[in-house]
# Entry
Amino acid sequence: MAGSGPIPKRDSERTRRNKPENEGGVSLAKGIAYPVNVPPADPTWAPRAKAWYDSLATSGMAEFMQNSDFEYARILCDALTHYYDRPSAMMLASILSGMTSLGTTEGDRRRMRIELEAPKPEIQSVGVTALAGYKSKLAKKT
# Structure
């Protein structure tokens, strides 16, 4: 579960660097991540429920999700579709709590100690670039 309290700062914004990795004193249990089969969105879901579900598979958080997480998201989409038909504050609170446990917002992920970063562009060395240019010139001559 994501936890509660204020949203922690991003790692790059923290000033204290000497804190132990497991600052809460809890060690991290590790397991095996099996291949994930993402079921398609149910066509009977509300459009926003479908959009949210589809965004889970393409988000950076998808790297951490397993089959059970996607099934949990399917249950949330069923509830969200029902919520749009008959809104209630309690149902919305339950749905948002479920979304929180999946780490769907940046604040939720930070509370889980997960930070997603934009991929860094791959930088080619000057030598590789020069060789590629030389090969293309040779290919044009023949």
Q: What stands out?
A: The chain has a mean pLDDT of 81. Helices lie at 47-58, 67-85, 89-101, 106-111, 126-141. Residues 53-117 form one domain.
